[in-house]
Amino acid sequence: MERKLPPGQEWVDGLIPYDIGPVPPLRLEDFQLRIDGEVENPLQLTWEELLELPQAEVKADFHCVTRWSVPDLRWEGVLARTIIELCRPKEEVRWVLAYGREGYSTNVPYGYFAQEDTILAHKLNGKPLPPENGWPLRLVVPSLYAWKSAKYLARLEFTREKRQGYWEERGYHDVGDPWKEERRWDSRA
Length: 189
Ligand SMILES: Nc1nc2c(c(=O)[nH]1)N[C@H]1C(S)=C(S)[C@@H](COP(=O)(O)O)O[C@H]1N2
Ligand SMILES: [Mo]
Hints:
By secondary structure, the protein is mostly beta strands. It has 3 helices and 11 strands, in the order E-E-E-H-E-E-H-E-E-H-E-E-E-E. The strands form 2 sheets. Strands 1, 4, 5, 8, 9 and 10 form a 6-stranded mixed beta sheet that branches. A 5-stranded mixed beta sheet has the order 3-2-11-6-7. The mean pLDDT is 96.
């Protein structure tokens, strides 16, 4: 079977960690995931509560804007669609801001967040997420470049207005679809 590679990408064997800065330590008993913004039912989930939600598995390729792609990563966790059912975003919601506990943020168009393969992952290839890949929880949006997959996930904020995250403020694309090569805001497909 031939595997499709987005334009301008090359296959590599494994993830190459990228971090904007040091990540504060965390004890699982102190873990909190805030889900707020324009939603009918804001949530604050503990680690135990997260694990009690329906669990799912997603197999997907991972595409970094720096031109490497990793095939067939197996993520396990809670689907974004499960989170959407629980928090019930309002009709006007167009964006989801994902925040890491070290201060990272990224804006994800709601339509991509709501894809069936978007997952809040706590396992990678059958093992707990390695520290450098976002332990204990990361967002994975396989349909977008990897900078949209916020590691060390601490909060999801649903908004109607666009607010940019860390890389978007520095010129990267608000959408970031690898099949359209939406690398920087001024990129041409
Ligand atoms: N919290 C957080 N998430 C992040 C980043 C970051 O610096 N902090 N870097 C992003 C970038 S630029 C990429 S390419 C991927 C890399 O994922 P990896 O470190 O698991 O390979 O994580 C994304 N998510
Ligand atoms: Mo990246």
